[in-house]
Amino acid sequence: xxxxxxxxxxxxxxxxxxxxxxxxxxxxxxxxxxxxxxxxxxxxxxxxxxxxxxxxxxxxxxxxxxxxxxxxxxxxxxxxxxxxxxxxxxxxxxxxxxxxxxxxxxxxxxxxxxxxxxxxxxxxxxxxxxxxxxxxxxxxxxxxxxxxxx
Length: 150
Description:
about 25% strand; Heat Shock Protein 90; about 30% helix; alpha+beta; five-stranded antiparallel β-sheet; 3 helices; 5 strands
C-alpha cells in the first residue's frame, strides 16, 4: 500500500456585519498574497475576491449575522467557505425576477466564477463552499475541470 501525502494550508476568520464585507475581502487578499501563485493566477485572485464579497454579503443580508470565512489551499484548489447561522438554503433565482433588481445575483456570480461550488447545512446554519483552481499548473483559463471536493 502506498502512503498518500497531502499538504494543506488554511485560514479562518469571522466577519460580523459591523466589520463589513470590505474587511473580509482585504483579509482574503492578504492570505492569497502569501500563496505561491504566479502572475497567470491574477484572474483567479479577482474571481476569489469578488466571490468572497458576494458570499459574505449574502451571509450578512440573509442571516443578519456574522459570516465565518475559511480559506483552504490544497495545492490544487482554493476552497472558499462562508458559513452563517441561517438554516434556509438559497434557491435558484426565479425566472420572473425583476431584471432591474439590484440584488439576487450573488450565487449566479459565484457560479460563473468558481470551478465548482456546493452548499450544505451545518451547525444549525449553512455553508457555501466554492473551489477555484489557479491557472498555473492546472490548464488554460476557462478549462473548468470536474468538481473539487471539499
